[in-house]
Each structure stands twice: as C-alpha cells, then as structure tokens.
Amino acid sequence: MFAETKSLNEECGVFGIWNHPDASRVTYFGLHSLQHRGQEGAGIVSGDHLALRGYRGLGLIAEVFKDSQNLTNLTGSRAIGHVRYATSGNNSIQNIQPFLFHFYDMSVGVCHNGNIINAKQLRKELEEDGAIFHSSSDTEVLMHLIRRSSKTTFEEQLKESLCKIKGGFTYLLLTKDCLYGAVDPNSLRPIAIGQMKNGSYVLASETCAIDTVGAKFVRNVNAGEYVVISEQGIRVESYTKDTMISIAAMEYVYFARPDSDIAGVNVHTARKRSGKHLALECPCPQADIVIGVPNSSLSGASGYAEQSGLPYEMGLVKNQYIARTFIQPTQELREQGVRMKLSAVKGVVEGKNVVMVDDSIVRGTTSLRIVKLLKEAGANQVHVRIASPPLLFPSFYGIDISTTSELIAANKSLEEICQYIGADSLGFLSEAGLIDAIGLSFDAPYKGLCMECFNGDYSAGLYDYEKDFFANLTPIQLAHLEKRRKALV
Ligand code: AMP
C-alpha cells in the first residue's frame, strides 16, 4: 500500500547565503546545524556573477566534505546547500542535492525540502511534452516547468511554475545574479531569513541554523511567498494569494531542533507545554519518576514532570554518535539501531514505577525496545505517555511517516498497542491538547497547524495520492474520518 509514498517522501534541510567571502564554508556550518533533518546525503552549490559550481555526496555533511579541498574549491560569495533525508531505494547520488543545471543561457542550482503531491501528474505531462528527467527526485519538476514557461524573466517563470506545484515545499534556487527562496501556499515547510553582521543574508529551514552562523533573525518567508536576494537588495513577494496557513505539527513534535522557533513559537517550549497537557490528560498517580527518550522527548518529559509534581530523572542515556534510527532502510537494521542508540540507567529506574514520555509512536519499535530495556534494568512498572496524538495517517507533505501498513496506530487499538509494546499503561495527547500546547493563533483551521498525520485532514489536498488513499483506508482510519466528519456537521 502507498508504495509510491515511500519512495517520494523527503524531509530535508536547506541553507542559503548571499554576499559573503566564505559563502560555502558558512553554508557548511549552517547545514551542520540542520543535520538532524537528514543524514543520507549533502551538497553545496556556490558561485559568483560568472559561474556556479557544486559538490555533493552520500552521508553526513562532515563525511561529504571530509576532504576539505572539496569545500575550498567551492569559491564565490553566494551558496545554497542541502542535507537530505530519503527513504529506502532512493538514496543514489543522482538524487543528492542541490542539483546544478547548466543551460545555454544560464546555470541554476536548486534544492528542495518537502514533497510535491502532483509530481507524478506533472512529470507525466512534462515527459509527454519531451522532457527527459535525470533523477527520480521531484526537485527536477520545478526546473522543467521553469524552462518551459513562456514568461520572459526568470522570476516570472519561477512564479508561474510555483503556482503549478502542489504539496509541502520550500525551494532554494541560485543563479549567478540572485538567490531565491520559496515556500508553499500552506507554509507547511518553513524558511527563515537572517542577516549577518556584515550585511549578508541567509535563508534556512530552521532558525537554529541562523543562530549558528551568527546571523540575526529577520522574518519568516510566509505561505505563498518567495524571497529574492540580489545586488539590488532583498524583496519578499507573493506568487499566489490562494494561501491558508497550515504549519506541519510534526515540525514541533519531532523534526525541528528545540532551539529553533517556528512561526514565533520556540520548539522546546511547545514540546514542554505538550508534556504538561499530557500530564493533565493522562495522569499516572502510581508513578515515582518521569523520564524522557533522548533527545526529542526530553522537553515533553520535563513538562510532564513539572505538571505532575513528579521528579524528572535521567532514565535513559543516548549514544550521541549514532544517527537517527529511521535512517536505516530495513526494520531489522532499525531495531539494531535502537539497541545501539539507547541504554537504561539502572540506578535510576530499578524498583521504580516509571512514566516514560516519548514524542510519538510510528511503528512502535522504539517504545517496545525501551519498555524492555527499562524492565530489564529493574523498573517495576513502565507507563508510556506520548506527547502527540496517535499517528493514524501517512504524511504526503514531506515527513517520512511511512506507509499506512507500518503505522501501528492505524492498525491497532490503544489496548493492542499497549500490549504490543509491553507497557503497563499507555496514553496519547489529544488533538486539541497538541493544538493548544503548540499555541499558534492564526485564523485558520487548527489555529494554523497541519494535523494531517493525526486526523487525515490534508490541508494542501491529495492529488496523486487521492485514489490510493481512499481505496486503502483501515477500519481505524475510516472510523476517525467519520468522527471528524460528524464533528464538522
Ligand atoms: P517507532 O520506533 O517506529 O515507533 O518510531 C518512533 C520514534 O521515532 C520516536 O521516538 C520518535 O522520536 C521518532 N520519530 C517520529 N516521527 C519520525 C519521523 N517522521 N522520522 C523519523 N523518526 C521519527
């Protein structure tokens, strides 16, 4: 089911800089702080008013540029870079970004974060019209649309092309004259603008990268907007007025770094508030201590402890040198990854009734393994509390929430999940609790959040995925959609 989804989803990090003597090196540092968004490949395209050049490779940014000469070669005062997360079968070098296109009249570097949900349809139309694709990545689609546009300037061609693309996306594009950054009409995937002391502008998927390179946050690129930076300065324009803010809730729940702000809300603070709401919604009076699963749920666990008045303890230790478990393409390797990644602190959990807070359950692998670890370390009871609602639906907007068949909550009831992971009790935060905890206040559904994975409300539509989605709903998904439909009536 949803085989297509699995090969197309991407959750990545992008960084761009304009007018800096060490543009590619600053981009390297920026990408370093976005490494949590993708570890499978990385690359940088840099240049000046004469030419663009690029280098990319598989692995972490530090591995790709292990030979520092590869970075030194990337001269020029402007650059864009990308760290890539990709699912299995799609991690060949051809798909590593930024792509660098050389045409007879210009060169363009382009990188992309997110997922285009009408890519299949657009590709078909473009191929029928004679386009030849070089990679299996969606990113090329934008470039083909731009080159086929009848508009006369690159900016107009870009605007026209962005209007044809549906889904969650951010793009960075570099020509020898301009750096562009564009955000989808729902603001599903973020871009923030920063400015360095020397006046250089930077663009980044998360504000943590802006801080890392010593820049000051200027503003976000909002839904349906694009930013153009050139020798003439900086402009933010709209390519469409047909927008509705719907920021991916999973950015707050799991993806973003705790020191990043999204739409003015600090990620750590949102997670901590989620933990507090969780403690109110799913208390655990018999517990002695609260622990979190490092790193993404530590903020949530501290909120749970604070709200419930229980001691917040370090019950699990993470080996910081292992990449995220999801990066492993098979279930067997993922399980091995969890074992290498986490250890229980025996002296803390032995004989205790433990509340173990995690940010989310996808397949159930992590919770199952951790409950076992904690019990093997002598924990008396393990009560699992999840600081987000059950992940019932796949994501089509660029977060690897996999296929429906792998989503445990789309296939098992709460009691069955609890039994599967071997916990003494299990509780999830409600949808309303998460919306409240994140605390956006936009005049839009869910106060400006995209809750697609929790409630099946796909704010940017389904396009290529629609037929498959409705044909393959599980009874649990159907019941949830029905509940939402009734609530709307
Ligand atoms: P699982 O072990 O399959 O249940 O995955 C749950 C764990 O993966 C949690 O500890 C989360 O922190 C993390 N996680 C949640 N969503 C994602 C995602 N889209 N990609 C990678 N990891 C995730």
From TrEMBL:
Its cofactor is Mg(2+). Keywords: Glutamine amidotransferase, Glycosyltransferase, Magnesium, Metal-binding, Purine biosynthesis, Transferase. Pathway: Purine metabolism; IMP biosynthesis via de novo pathway; N(1)-(5-phospho-D-ribosyl)glycinamide from 5-phospho-alpha-D-ribose 1-diphosphate: step 1/2. It catalyses: 5-phospho-beta-D-ribosylamine + L-glutamate + diphosphate = 5-phospho-alpha-D-ribose 1-diphosphate + L-glutamine + H2O. Mg(2+) binds at S296, D358, D359. Binds 1 Mg(2+) ion per subunit. InterPro entries: GATase_2_dom, Ntn_hydrolases_N, PRTase-like, PRTase_dom, PurF, PurF_N. It comes from the Bacteria. The active site is at C12. CDD domains: GPATase_N, PRTases_typeI. The keyword Lipoprotein does not apply. One of its GO terms (molecular function) is amidophosphoribosyltransferase activity. SUPFAM superfamilies: N-terminal nucleophile aminohydrolases (Ntn hydrolases), PRTase-like. Residues 12-232 form the Glutamine amidotransferase type-2 domain. It holds the Pfam family Pribosyltran. Its EC number is 2.4.2.14. In the C-terminal section; belongs to the purine/pyrimidine phosphoribosyltransferase family. HAMAP family: PurF (MF_01931). Catalyzes the formation of phosphoribosylamine from phosphoribosylpyrophosphate (PRPP) and glutamine. This is Amidophosphoribosyltransferase. It comes from Granulicatella seriolae.
